[in-house]
Amino acid sequence: MLTPEHLHALHNLPLAAKRAAEGLLHGAHASRRRGAGLEFSQYRPYQPGDDLRRLDWRLAARSDRYYLRESEVDTSLAVHLVLDATASMNHRDDNGLTKLDYGRLLCAALAYVASQQGDAVALTILHPAGLRHLPPRADARQLPRLYHALATAEAAGSFPDAATLAPLTARRQPALTICVSDLYEEEGEIERLLTRLRAASGEVLLLHLLAHNELAFTFRGAVTFEDLETGRTLQLDADQQRRGWQQHLQQWLRDTAQRARTHGFDYYQLTTAEPLTNALREFLRRRSLA
């Protein structure tokens, strides 16, 4: 199993996405199932309560038995990837990866897995200069488009304003929205966006991304912290403040998870130090319920 830093060292998003998903897709939920579809699959005996319109009357006349025609039904989804590219995603972990580096790898791997399942994949990169949006498609050229958009994304500024985000929530297209974000916000703007996306599109899977060094607070001695979005600084002794920091952070994480679930989001926390397969499995688990 390749670590995130090994995947990042490939400097090749298509290859990294494929390597991250290797071995994961075996036994994954198939994109087609039997039911009332278009492509004929097989017959099965009639059971009380079945739709009589699916009875094969010609076969019944020949055999004096009642059979239903079953077909393969496409169960593909529209998967909408939303990547937070605000300045806080430039935070760098001890393994050398920024949150944006990890987010790029994760979105690329999610797009690869979704496309292998026959899903149409969309991508939105959020930054204050405007939305970078690729609408959902399932054609062969979509993955290269997504990889290029991810590879060239840069984190900067604060979260986009409501007017910039309006086109996203105006589209009422059923989809599974997957948001990758560290959830650093000023006044609940990310929560509001995801609430509107859930109302407009359906299910939301929130992948809350943290750096391992901020979760474990691995800093030592006198440290100056800078807010990457506002430029404000804070000086403290990391050894003295570690316990208080971790208590405060754990309370914030509990509150964040509770609010997300209250809004009906599927919430999953991960760090930049863990393999991508954990989040990919969560996506496949959520997809199997769709």
UniProtKB/TrEMBL annotation:
InterPro entries, A to Z: DUF58, vWFA_dom_sf
Pfam families from the UniProt entry: DUF58
Top-level taxonomic group: Bacteria
Protein name per Swiss-Prot or TrEMBL: DUF58 domain-containing protein
Residue ranges of every copy of the DUF58 domain listed in the record: 42-245
Record SUPFAM superfamilies: vWA-like
